[in-house]
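@channel sequence for tomorrow's demo:
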Amino acid sequence: MRLKPRQYVLIVLIIGIGAFNYVRARRAEQPAPAAAAAVPANVKAGMAPAWPLYDSAAAARDADDAQWQPALKAVNDAIDGTNTTASPPQASGSEMIDLHGCQTWLLFYRNEHLHPTSKPGWLAETKQHVDSCVAQHRDIAR
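structure tokens (generated this afternoon):
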């Protein structure tokens, strides 16, 4: 049996699509490059300079006021310095919104830690938000 030219074209198309899907599936199975995974979260390029200070304030969230107040002041000063700096590439607008949201959750946690409320689970909820801010450097509450 002799095939017509359009049937050859269809066979080539089917083989091409199969090869494309095979290559795509192989690339999806490959792990991410090691160099990209080695970059810690607190040294991202273009990251707001206040995030490392936020991380240290979050680490001192259960400490006494002698450790907590300087850490909180450093975060507030860094946020104010980033907002008044003339060079806009230091932090994008969404990073600053995330930083303010995470700062608010940190203050909620600290207040709940010092003055527990009757609302069950509030400390756990604020702890979850603060921990996610430290891990992801963004506010997940939006």
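heads up for whoever presents: The chain has a mean pLDDT of 77.
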